[in-house]
Amino acid sequence: MSVIREGIGFEWLTGPSRVGPDLQDELAVCWGEVANAGGAVGFPFLPVEREQVYRAVTELVNSLDPRGAQLLVAHEGGSLLGWLLLTLNTNSVVAHWARVTRVQTSLAARASGVGRALMAEVARAAREDHRLEQLHLELRAGQGLEGFYESCGWKEIGRWPNALRLGVGSDRDEVLMLLSL
After folding, report:
1. pLDDT tens-digit profile, the chain (181 residues)
2. Which of 129, 157, 111, 112 minimizes the C-alpha distance to 72?
3. How many Cα atoms occupy the beta-carbon half-sphere of 100 within 13 Å?
4. What is the distance between the alpha carbons of residues 67 and 56, in angstroms, rounded to a whole number?
């Protein structure tokens, strides 16, 4: 399904066949550039190599499933602006919430509202399409991201102190965030 908001086109991709080679290339370029610019998007040890990113994109694409992992991409004029992954829970005990991961915008789209638009669309889809009550995400402290998510309605609900070791003497808290829908 495609949704347009604030001039940005959104598309939810729910299966590997929905993500063609061109989009896979765009995802890999975006992911690699964001990681190498210091973004906390799953590659903590930099620089990240192209092949490493392409393997991660292949894994991500192969994990897509309408009942599980769903990819949200934001685009404008045929160019990828940003993306995130929404992972639904299939276990009935936790089926009322989902996890948001890999939130990122292309370097060219930074500070343009794309990140905020992605967060609004994932909240809308979780509430309206999936009838969820909560969204969860974890982030690496020290990146200045808490304020961004709080401005999108998320609340910090806890931290795992020094949970992430990025190198000798470089431990970071893992911050737990919640969005009540």
Report:
1. 444 445 789 999 999 999 999 999 999 999 999 999 988 898 888 899 999 999 999 999 999 999 999 999 999 988 999 999 999 999 999 999 999 999 999 999 988 899 999 999 999 999 999 999 999 999 999 888 999 999 999 999 999 999 988 888 889 999 999 999 9
2. 129
3. 26
4. 21
Cα–Cα distance, 154 to 116 (Å, whole number)? 12
Tell me the CB-side half-sphere exposure of residue 4, using CA atoms within 13 A.
Answer: 3
Specify the 3-state DSSP secondary structure of 95: coil
Q: Which residues of 8-20 are buried (b: 16+ CB within 10 A; e: fewer)?
A: bebbbbbeeeebe
CATH of 2-132, one of 3.30.360.10, 3.40.190.10, 3.10.290.10, 3.40.630.30: 3.40.630.30
Structural domain boundaries of the chain?
Answer: 2-132
Say if CB 49 and CB 73 are below 8 A apart.
no
CB 72 within 8 A of CB 12: yes
Token match 């990828």: residue?
80
Are 105 and 47 spatial neighbours (Cβ–Cβ below 8 Å)? no
Q: How many CA atoms lie within 13 A of 30 on its CB side?
A: 24
Judge contact between 82 and 72, C-beta under 8 A: no
